[in-house]
Amino acid sequence: MEKVFRHDYKVNKNFVTIVKISASFGISCKFRRNSLTIALLPQKLINFNSLQKRFTQTVQIRTADCTIMRHFFSESPNSLREVPAFPPNRAMLFGDGIFETMVYIDGKIRFEQLHQERLLKGMRALMIQSEELPEVKTIARLVANQVRKTGTFRLRWTVFRAGLGKYTPTDSGYCELLTVAPFHPATSVKKTAYISDSIRVPYNSWANCKTLNALPYVMANLERQKKQQEEVILLDQNGYLSEAGSANLFWQKEGIFYTPSLRHACVAGVARRQILIKLQEMNLTLIEGSFRPDDLLQAEQVFVSNVSGISYLEQIQGISFATQPVPGLAALFGWSTNS
Fold this sequence. Notes:
The protein is of the alpha+beta class. It has three domains: about 55 residues, no CATH class; about 110 residues, 2-Layer Sandwich (D-amino Acid Aminotransferase, Chain A, domain 1), CATH 3.30.470.10; about 140 residues, D-amino Acid Aminotransferase, subunit A, domain 2 (D-amino Acid Aminotransferase, Chain A, domain 2, Alpha-Beta Barrel). The protein is about 20% helix and about 35% strand. It has a six-stranded antiparallel sheet with strand order 7-6-11-10-8-9. The protein has a six-stranded mixed sheet with strand order 12-20-19-16-17-18, with helices on one face. It has a five-stranded antiparallel sheet with strand order 4-3-2-1-5, covered by helices on one side. The two termini are about 40 Å apart. Its EC number is 2.6.1.42. This is branched-chain-amino-acid transaminase.
């Protein structure tokens, strides 16, 4: 790549970057809020000379940093390489795969063993097979060597079925896609939340896996935005509490903690498992079970968790709850590389 010509549009806070990569093609990159969309364009559509005259600011690509998303792709086990874009695949066409959202801290991936176990369990559930299985330690080394060893990043590790085909796969292997982006910890307190009465989480044999079929969560969060709420709580198909819009659900009443059972279609969260272990270590009572919305609304404290941390809910449908952090839980999501 030679140079990057950047123009900032003040109206919508987007900017478009044109990168000259060959005699025939250029790449159009649209950035918005730290996300990156890339399209390959014939160079005949791009007048680099006029761009250089028009845009006085010239910047270099920051290969040693991660201020935007960077993508690494592999069509064979443990051979990830950085790519500007990737071809049509079963992840894109059918949602045929799973993913892990992880936190990288100074050369290590937090809760790496739990991520490894859940990924392999998801591959078995979707019958994605390979003689050589993906390893989370390989991801940590890749980020340290090709992005930066020190620092904290959000990783999305997608593993999907190889080949194309139609609904019936033509290949039993897998491909990998790693996206590296800036990390933002969970909001400590979410002031408003509601229980959705229109969107339900369906149960199936892969419901506890983080699959690429995420439409219930997409639609729930679109509904949440429309209602101008900070969190949405979802029920399963039978009306039992399941989870939040992108997190697991917990609450506390009279010193006892509660969380929906995995049989109610919630994702088997890595953070959820860590919280279960920690509460047991602290000799606190936790009940996993089947609960209705009224059980939640009678709680003293409600919080949601994912790999980014814990968020306490201040109000659900106008009912107020305590937001004082539970002693001992916050340390699970600290910045130590030993976590």
